[in-house]
Amino acid sequence: MAAYWIARAKINDPVEYKKYTDLVPGILKQYGGRVIVRGGKFQIMEGTDAFQRFIVIEFDSLEAGVKCFESPEYVAAAAYRRGGAGIVENVIVEGGEATK
Description:
By secondary structure, this protein is α+β, with helices and mostly antiparallel strands. The chain has helices spanning 14-30, 62-69, 72-85; strands at residues 3-11, 34-38, 53-59, 86-94.
């Protein structure tokens, strides 16, 4: 069943954050990830406006998404943003009944 890695981000240091984003597309491809949404116009309907970037990545399964997130390649790339360049919340969720 397809799964979706959903992230919301606040970028504090665009130069350092770009070091992370430059690496991520190749890592996602290696694990079968397909970017559905990255950036773009949005409207907060409810909740905090602390985040200004939203990302949705599709994987063939929850396990594939988790494997990508926990991979040495992704962990190394994420170190750029985890060092203060950005604040990101991530969740990986199966598509469920609605996607069938």
